[in-house]
Amino acid sequence: MATSTPSNTFSNKCRCDQNCGCCLKKKKKEPGFIGKRPWLLVIVAFGMMFSAWSVMIYMAVTHQPEVIPLVTHAAE
Description:
mainly alpha
């Protein structure tokens, strides 16, 4: 009976297409640089948030509306 798996499972040669999951040679993909260090995304997000707030505060301070004095009549 012909099967796609080899009779000797400890053999380095596999008859299947390497995608079935039966191979010993199939390696799991390791996470990348950011996948190993997800806390870096948190630091970048906070940095972007602080810089956006800094720009908004700077724009609000430099483009303040004209101050209009309030006239109050003192009770006599």
